Amino acid sequence: MGAISDNRIKFNKPNLKAIENRINRGEFTKETYIYDADSHLAVRARPGRSYIDSVFCMYARIRVRGECKSRMYKRQIMRVGEARNAEITISELRQKVDSLFLEIQEGRDPQVIAQKEAAKQADNQGLIEARRSFKDMIYGTPVDESDECLPDGFIAERRPGQRYLVDIRNKCEVLLVDLLDLPLHSISPEQVKTVYLQKVGRGKTQLDCAMRILRSIWNWAQTKYDDSDLFIRNPVSRAMKQLGVNINRTNRCTGRLDDVDFKPYLKSVLKLREHDHTSAYRNGRDALLFMLFSGVRRTGTMTVRMEGIDLDRLVFKIIKKGGDQVELPLNTVTAAIVRNRQDYLPKDAEYLFPGMGGRGYYRDTKAVRDIVKNQTGISVTNHDLRRTYKSIGTELDINSVLVDELLSHAREGVDAHYIHPSMTRLRDASQKIADYMVKQAGFDLIDELTSRW
Known about the structure:
The chain is α+β, with helices and mostly antiparallel strands.
């Protein structure tokens, strides 16, 4: 082939034909570079590949201007087959590779320049993402006009549990709705304070939870877009410090009915039916009784469906806080409440506690709780009734697993996997709690309830 050395020859038509024959015969058992004697051009041959699949490239040691040491550079120019199809001559290939050599030598490596440009574009894209709205930070960047979102939001990356996910949606879309469309990085402490002061009347506990969620999402964004310098100080922490408000969980609520409260409280609740002739106060009466004697949360109570009640088996179904459905037992009091309502409600009622005019379901007991408070001086929230139920269960030495199951409390560890109490044991526990409260009331609650609508 007129070789100058074993792997360096003058690239001309006869010599390239000889290289082609050697490659096609499979003479090269490992990756080999054959260099052009007149330029920095080379042919890269690999085992198992034909000549047209080989590559014209530059494989040379270059010392970049201003640097002390040289290093090897490997750059692909084009495939042999592509050069042949495009009728590119060896002289043109030599010119390409020699120009590339000089560019690198002068510190203008096209590959490095392209990488820097790509990094710059990525930074620009990162800035666009970092400037997203609070809503997009939660759910992810929307895809076109559809309801789908890219998995680049807080929910997709942090993968919160079902209960926390429900809290995020409820709190952000109700209490923090004024901030949803604002760029998250632009939310100021003043805006956070304004929202807090406007919404605190709806309930401090719920608003504190909403603020903790906003603080968590902001901290997540600060870590994710650390290079953007858009997220400096968390506006929630600054706003709460200025207001002198502690949104972290501190002392737990302790409200509950004491033994001496049962008689006046239950008598007052039963008298709610005397306030008017609509269903609102009867809904309130029975909802308060049902929450007290079942331990079920307000939302779980209000959304009990008629189709989810089985009086033959003495069970009813609710939707838990996390969104899952669970079946719970009816004791004598809650069963009496259900039967009494079924006797007087329309046959086509969808909910045990239907809304006004039969539309939807009854929403809140605040009005009736205020009446009871004014009559008795006893102020208890919906959750205080649930707390009373669990406290009595504990005082009666009922197994904590049974009480947690009755209240649909999450259990962790081995117990959650292996221990599943029977409905009979759950009903016995529920009945024991109900019997205790009726005994403390000192009158026949069921007879009083069912004597008239």
